[in-house]
Design goal:
The structure holds 2 protein chains of 2 kinds.
Chain A (H helix, E strand, L loop, with lengths): L6 H14 L12 H10 E12 L2 E12 L3 E5 L6 H7 L10 E9 L2 E2 L7 H7 E4 L10 H11 L5 H14 L3 H4 L12 H13 L5 E5 L7 H14 L5 E4 L3 H7 L2 E8 L8 E9 H6 L4 H7 L5
Chain B lengths: L1 H6 L12 H36 L5 H5 L12 H32 L5 H13 L4 H13 L9 H25 L3 H8 L5 H30 L2 H5 L20 H9 L4 H34 L2
Helix pairs in contact in B: 2-12, 4-7, 4-9, 4-11, 5-7, 6-7, 7-9, 8-9, 9-12, 11-12
Classes of the chains: A alpha/beta, B mainly alpha.
Chain lengths: 301, 300
């Protein structure tokens, strides 16, 4: 399997990123070629001119995003700007919506997720996802975590035991549930359920973790625990998080992408666009686009 | 603060000021609801009561153990009980298998927007409303006679009841699958599960209570069905239990029909007793449905 993007892909991507004018923090100027190479090695995922239609409706267009190893990338923006749609392209969850049509490319370690070499199941195993509402399976805590490893292979009882323990520990839930692994997952609180869902995603050892508003259904204390957990695991599992909460993006993320909506020439419904993508520090302290500045300062959205 | 409040004159009046007419209307409405509930209960109690009174004398072991006889004292319904069990169990199992497959295809795989699938859906819903006698005629023309020529056998009856029960079962199985939250499917897919793994390991276990309830309802309908089987030879004098699909058969609803039409009161008592047996079987079936539902809810 191709581990790094081929040179052709890199130069193509570089050209497109420059064309689209989005402020990707990786320096892509042609004279500093070595710098570009370094940041390319640091990349784990990258979208190029990504756009999604639902039927005839263009939901979001021209998204060029680069996801870096060891970092948390936050997608923020007002409702309907396509944040969730984009994150669902990153592990092909949009395949499940019959009307959704994905254009452009999403690269994972240089492989196009929508290309002929990519199998949707394998993509989703490598790129895990945590949803807005905690969605544990109606099974025991143990079986919830063991589900992923079991559908992806035939682990022995001992392997499964070890994997369940390790995943629950990684998700900072082990101490709370180790004495009741056989109990229903629904006996847990909302915050615990969400950490169980994180443990479940980690049990298949993904390379990237996508989180679609993981704290929107949780209280502040449970939210804080999830945020701590994210900071703790990001070195092993780079995270892409969609959030409605600007403070959360500012607190946890290393890079932030600000999305906004605009109504196209012939469209009746607003289409999402990527306005600005930069380090979180720059987005919040020194945004280059006035729309970003307005949104951050609370004058819009 | 509290002393200030208590020192003030009472200005709030919390007495009931609802007008007498409104209260009367309230009571009238409640009374009406009671009346209608009572009508249903009284009808049921009267039916079961008169049947019990009539059949009480024959509600004994000989009823279940004996085969039909020209002497009312010896007449039993064993052949009909076994006939009913044969027909209902076979048609129930076959239709459950077909209905589950159809429902899974239509809900989980088929493109909901395609015209063909909309047409199939409308067709199934219409079939669920077709009078059972029509299925009987169909069975007579194409299964008992005609192409298959199976004659008046258990196999023919089972096939016709399967056709009759299928639409109801498909509709209820689809509803049960629809009721499974999509977050469950997403959760499984997001872990790399295939469509088949998602369905077998997550969707079906969650849908079992609904599917079981719907299927047993369908089977209950088959157990009480008489119209199509009249056309298919079940109204015959059968003095042996079925041994396979090719056997002669009769079923409970039809021996009930036969005995209650007899002039002799003793035969009518056999009919009434047979009604009680049929009712008990129906109650037992519903109990099984409830048990399956509760069990599968607790299983995790």
């Amino acid at each position: 399997m191709v581990e790094d993007m081929s040179n052709a892909t890199i130069s193509e991507t570089t050209a497109r990123l420059r064309q689209s004018g989005s402020v990707v923090s990786v320096s892509l100027s042609s004279d500093s070629h070595s710098a570009a190479d370094n940041s390319q090695n640091d990349l784990i995922m990258q979208s190029v001119d990504l756009q999604v239609h639902y039927g005839d409706f263009l939901a979001v267009r021209d998204v060029n995003l680069a996801i870096h190893k060891g970092e948390i990338t936050a997608l923020i923006g007002p409702s309907g700007c396509g944040k969730s749609t984009i994150i669902r392209c990153f592990n092909r969850m949009n395949d499940l919506i019959p009307t959704a049509k994905v254009g452009g490319k999403v690269f994972y370690k240089g492989i196009d997720l929508y290309g002929p070499e990519a199998n949707a199941g394998e993509v989703r195993r490598r790129i895990g996802m945590v949803f807005q509402k905690p969605n544990p399976f109606p099974k025991s805590i143990y079986d919830n975590v063991a589900f992923g490893p079991r559908v992806n292979g035939k682990p022995t009882k001992a392997e499964t035991d070890e994997l369940v323990e390790r995943s629950l520990k990684r998700a900072a839930l082990w101490e709370e549930v180790k004495d009741r692994l056989k109990q229903s997952a629904f006996s847990l609180s909302g915050g615990q359920q969400q950490r169980l869902c994180i443990a479940r995603a980690l049990a298949v050892n993904p390379d990237v973790l996508l989180m679609d508003e993981p704290c929107s259904a949780l209280d502040p204390i449970a939210t804080a625990r999830i945020e701590d957990l994210m900071a703790e695991i990001k070195s092993d599992y780079p995270i892409v998080i969609v959030t409605h909460n600007m403070q959360q993006a500012a607190r946890v993320s290393d890079r932030t992408a600000f999305f906004n909506t605009e109504i196209g020439a012939n469209a009746t419904r607003p289409t999402g666009v990527l306005v600005e993508y930069d380090t979180t520090r720059n987005i919040f302290a020194n945004p280059t686009d006035t729309r970003t500045e307005q949104y951050i300062s609370g004058r819009m959205g | 603060m509290s002393s200030v409040v208590s020192a003030q004159p009472v200005v709030a009046d919390l007495h009931d000021t609802t007008s007498r007419a409104r209260k009367g209307l309230d009571k009238l409405f409640l009374g009406g609801l009671w009346m209608f509930t009572l009508v249903a209960i009284i009808t049921l109690v009267t039916l079961v009561g008169t049947t019990l009174l009539k059949g009480y004398s024959r509600l004994n072991w000989s009823l279940v153990a004996n085969f039909p006889s020209p002497f009312p004292g010896d007449a039993g319904i064993q052949a009909a009980i076994f006939g009913s069990v044969w027909v209902v169990v076979t048609s129930g199992l076959i239709s459950l298998f077909i209905a589950m497959s159809t429902a899974i295809y239509l809900e989980e795989f088929a493109d909901q927007r395609s015209r063909l699938n909309k047409l199939i859906t409308i067709n199934i819903q219409t079939l669920a409303g077709v009078p059972s006698i029509v299925f009987g005629i169909l069975g007579l023309a194409f299964i008992a006679r005609g192409w298959l020529g199976w004659g008046f056998t258990v196999g023919t009856a089972s096939a016709v009841l399967t056709m009759m029960v299928l639409p109801v079962m498909i509709v209820s199985a689809r509803e049960a699958l629809k009721a499974v939250p999509s977050s469950l499917r997403e959760g499984a897919f997001a872990l790399g599960a295939t469509r088949w793994q998602t369905i077998v390991k997550q969707v079906l276990p969650s849908a079992i209570p609904g599917i079981a309830t719907g299927s047993i309802l369908g089977v209950s309908r088959a157990l009480g069905e008489s119209a199509p089987l009249i056309l298919l030879g079940a109204l015959a004098y059968v003095s042996s239990n079925p041994t396979g699909f090719a056997s002669d058969y009769t079923v409970l609803p039809l021996v009930i029909l036969k005995y209650t039409q007899e002039a002799q009161e003793e035969f009518q008592a056999v009919g009434a007793a047979a009604i009680i047996v049929l009712l008990m079987l129906l109650v037992a079936l519903n109990m099984i449905a409830i048990i399956i539902r509760d069990k599968s809810r607790k299983s995790w």
